[in-house]
Each structure stands twice: as C-alpha cells, then as structure tokens.
Design goal:
The chain is α+β, with helices and mostly antiparallel strands. The protein folds into 2 domains: 54 residues, no CATH class; 164 residues, Jelly Rolls (Sandwich). It contains 4 helices and 13 strands. The strands form 2 sheets. Strands 1, 2, 4, 7, 8, 10 and 13 form a 7-stranded antiparallel β-sheet that branches. A 6-stranded antiparallel β-sheet has the order 6-5-9-3-11-12. α1 packs antiparallel against α4. It is elongated and about 105 Å long.
C-alpha cells in the first residue's frame, strides 16, 4: 500500500517577507516604547537622587581653629583647596564654626567659592554661597550647612578654594590634624589650605569644610542617547517603506 504525505503548499516569498516585516515592526515598536519610557523616567526624576561629597575634611579629631578676623586673627580669608572630580552643581557646604572665646558677636562673614590662583591661593570669588551674622554662632564648635541661592556648575577636574571672607567677624573656623582625615583621597588631592600666612600644605591642618555637589550628565551621554534614538527611528522608517 502506498503512503502519500501531503506537504503544505510553499508560502510565497512576498508573504514570508510581509510576515517577517510585521514581526520586526512589532519588535521595533516595543523597543521604541521602552526607550520612550526610559527617557520619560530620566526626565521626571532628579539626577542624581542624592548629592555627592567631593571634598570632606570634617569628622576628625578637633584641633582648635583660626580666628577669621583680619585685624586680630588669620583672615581675611580662610579656605581649603579642593579638586572637583566631575561636572556638578554646587549644592551645599558644611563648615565647623564657633565664636571666639570671650569675644562678643561682631558683624559677620560670607561663605564663598573662589577660583584657584595657584601660588597666590584663592583668586576672585566665583559665587557667594551665604552671608552669615556672628549672632548665629555659638561659643562651641558646631557644623553649619550653607546652601547657595543660585546654581553654580563646577567643572570636572578643576581646582577651587572654598572658605570664608571676613566682614568684621569674631568667628573661628575649625581645623584638623587627624591622620585619617589627612589621608582621605579628596583631601590629599586638595593638598593645601589658605590663611594670611599664604598657601599652606595640608600637613599643617586644613580647615574643617566639606563640599557637596549634584553631578550632571556629560554631553557625550546625551549625544549617545540621541544617536541611539536616531538609529532606531531610521530602522523603523526603513522597514515601513
């Protein structure tokens, strides 16, 4: 007895291409929707969710401090040098401050970000972070946080000075000789601090200051994203035609 096997008729090439095209378009549509979702989430969410500390000379053993007064202290500028590792917006600064023992409150001081003028120390002030009255200080050291009113972009790889500028103040800015603090990579990179004696090596005791920033995406990241979206759109147009 002869057995006959019935083979399904061959699918025309045009039909196969049409089916393959539908599958591809389905996948591209889902990829496009996923990409749009990722972009929407990135836009809707703050970047990043938490600020990064790019310089931190606080938290170690206390070593007294220097009076800010230009007349009787180490002022008129007390500042730490730091190297900013990446592009970021300055979000806050912390300083360990007190009022000079036995002194009445003076006028006050400003907290400033300065350019780095190399051997000359702090250069021109780039942004005033806060204006502070001595009446806000106590006789004992305490950490105070200051937030700038306007956004200021710190350039990646650029060095700056962060500190205080006297305005008839009796404030004291704490410093530290704690070996653990001096060994921190960001403190080592900063390398120096400044007072009326000029630029000083950090082995002498940097001021107790920390700097926080909010990193911003590099332009190359945006370019890569735009390129990827453009390529996806080109593929969709190609297979729609």
């Amino acid at each position: 007895m002869n057995t006959f096997t019935t083979q399904p008729p061959p699918v025309p090439r045009s039909v196969r291409f049409h089916d393959d095209k539908k599958i591809l378009m389905f996948n591209l549509n889902h990829i496009g929707r996923f990409t749009a979702l990722v972009i929407a989430l990135a836009i809707a969410s703050p970047y990043p969710a938490q600020a990064d500390t790019v310089y931190n000379a606080i938290g170690g053993a206390e070593n007294g401090g220097d009076p800010l007064s230009a007349a009787t202290g180490a002022g008129p500028v007390l500042a730490d040098r730091f190297v900013n590792p990446f592009n970021g917006t300055l979000t806050s600064v912390e300083l360990n401050l007190s009022l000079s023992p036995g002194a009445s409150a003076g006028q006050g001081f400003t907290v400033d970000l300065f350019a780095d003028a190399d051997a000359a120390g702090p250069g021109a002030p780039l942004v005033q972070i806060a204006s502070v009255l001595d009446t806000s200080l106590t006789s004992g050291f305490s950490l105070m946080t200051f937030t700038p009113d306007t956004d200021f972009l710190l350039t990646g790889g650029q060095s700056y000075y962060i500190g205080v500028l006297d305005n008839g103040s009796n404030a004291v800015l704490g410093n530290t000789l704690d070996p653990a603090v001096l060994a921190r990579p960001d403190v080592v990179a900063g390398a120096s601090y400044f007072n009326n004696g000029g630029v000083q090596a950090n082995s002498g005791g940097p001021y107790e200051i920390s700097v926080n920033t909010s990193p911003v995406p590099e332009p190359s990241s945006f370019a890569l994203l735009v390129t990827g979206i453009g390529a996806l759109g080109a593929m969709r147009r190609r297979f729609t035609a």
